[in-house]
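[step 3/7] fold_predict: job queued, chain A
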Amino acid sequence: MKNLIVKIIALSFILPVLSLSVAYSNENPTSINKSNDKQLKEKLKGIDGKTAMAIANKWHMDKIDVVTFVTPDKVNFKFKDGETISIPLPDDIMIVSIAPYINKTHTCATHYMSSCDAELKNTNIKVVAVTAASGKILINKTMKTAPTGFLDLWLPRNQTIDITVSAKGKSATGKIFTNRDSKTCETTLKLK
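[step 4/7] structure written:
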């Protein structure tokens, strides 16, 4: 009987401490987030620009809370602690993410993989991209937009590119520029 009373008293001290510990960890997940951020940052070590884009798109689909965006020179990952890790793009090519649309678009110059969203999700789009200066065909194929509605196009730098996109019996034409000061997000291709 004496042993039972000692166990009950001991539990009465331990249970409140455990409850506080669980409550604190649920309300203050900082240590968990820091650990998770550290693991995510580790995945970015030693990768190239194309791999960085693939990771940024995957993290968006997996709802990982990191702000990701691409400039003409690099893929950027901004973490909750304020640190930004930038992965350089190759010197000879850059990425332009396009979002052809029928009814709804948004104004965009810098593509944010973590938040840009477009109308035509998981849609087959015929893409023809040709250099304006020489007429060299860069892309001539049907591509499927991502679940975000965007197509990532890897294009040679320092070019003016004529682009035609077609889907659902409609088409649009436009120009894409791949200079160091160009947009990485093209949302003006209205299919008519």
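[step 5/7] annotate
The CA atoms of residues 160 and 177 lie 5 Å apart.
The longest strand covers residues 124-131.
exit 0
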